[in-house]
Amino acid sequence: MLVDRLMDVAQAEAARSSNERPGRVSASNIGKCERSLWYIKNGYKPIPPEPRGRMVMDTGHQLELQLERYMEKAGMNYFKPPENSCQANTGHGILAGTPDMIFEWQQGVWVVCDWKTISNYGFQRAEEGMVDEHYEWQLETYLRGGPYEHEGVKIYPIMGLLVFLRKETSHLHEHTVNKSESRWQDMKWKLIQANSPVVPEKPYALDPNCFRCKGTGKTPKGMRVCSNCTGSGQEPGGPYIPTFPCGYCNMREHCWGKLNLGVVSGKPRWGVA
Q1: According to the CATH classification, is domain 2-194 in 3.40.50.150?
Q2: Taking a C-beta distance cutoff of 8 angstroms, is the pair 217, 232 a contact?
Q3: Nearest to residue 166, comparing CAs of 121, 133, 130?
């Protein structure tokens, strides 16, 4: 009835959208593995996001607008930079991008900020200080991609701030990012590999092991035959590509070939066909 029509629209929106522009490595994707960046750089077409993923992104954007209204009511001085105002010169190419906002933390002290809508699991990790590296790489790019112009004045942010929004409960958590020379050198190295004439080797391996016995074929305590793999040590229906980051990568089929979606311990996993 109504839901089917709404999902049809979400499907169409997802098919039209993509986080990647062919041939363009940017602030938002530099944190991907070097093999994925190579496919992007060479114009391979990405897999469109799933309709539900598109809806989550749209919901996150609406929540971000609400938070910006709260900032206005709090009297905070901030601005939203124009598209691709970030131009970070790596020496191996320009990393362009658009920060969500830049705000004045103290008088004359500016911070570049990016909103991230994440799951319960991701939010818990962030609270424990375990932030996905590609988020920090994005902020590193923004910190090096200035200056940004605001009301005729050139702004040089001194710090990055990731604000995580827990999509299930609307809790907030913030994580500061400072410039890191080692991170910057790692980013340059990835660009060198993305510019290579040949595709880089896969940085991740297939996972053939049974998730219960970890490949031993026996239960950890009683040392009995594992009921999941019946003693083989191999995951039925496997091997599977790594859930993260490969399972979420929109270049996964270019990298791994044809994949089948299976279910392991109640969770979806992509297996090699």
Answers
A1: no
A2: yes
A3: 121
For CATH 3.90.320.10, the residue range(s) in the chain are 2-194
pTM of the model: 0.84
Q: How far is the C-alpha of 238 from the C-alpha of 229, rounded, in Å?
A: 11
Q: Which helix (H) or strand (E) holds 49?
A: none
| C-alpha pair distances (Å), 57 with each of 64, 117, 205 | 11, 8, 29
For the beta carbon of residue 148, count every other beta carbon within 10 angstroms: 20
Residue-by-residue pLDDT tens, the chain, 273 positions = 788 787 788 777 776 665 445 668 999 999 999 999 999 999 998 887 777 777 777 777 787 888 889 888 988 999 999 999 999 999 998 999 999 999 999 898 999 999 998 888 888 888 998 898 899 999 999 999 999 999 999 999 999 999 998 877 878 999 999 999 999 999 999 999 999 999 999 988 888 888 788 888 898 877 889 988 888 988 887 788 887 788 888 899 999 988 888 877 777 788 887
Q: Helices in 93-212 by DSSP H: which ranges?
A: 120-127, 133-144, 181-194
Residue 93, number of CB atoms within 10 A of its CB: 16
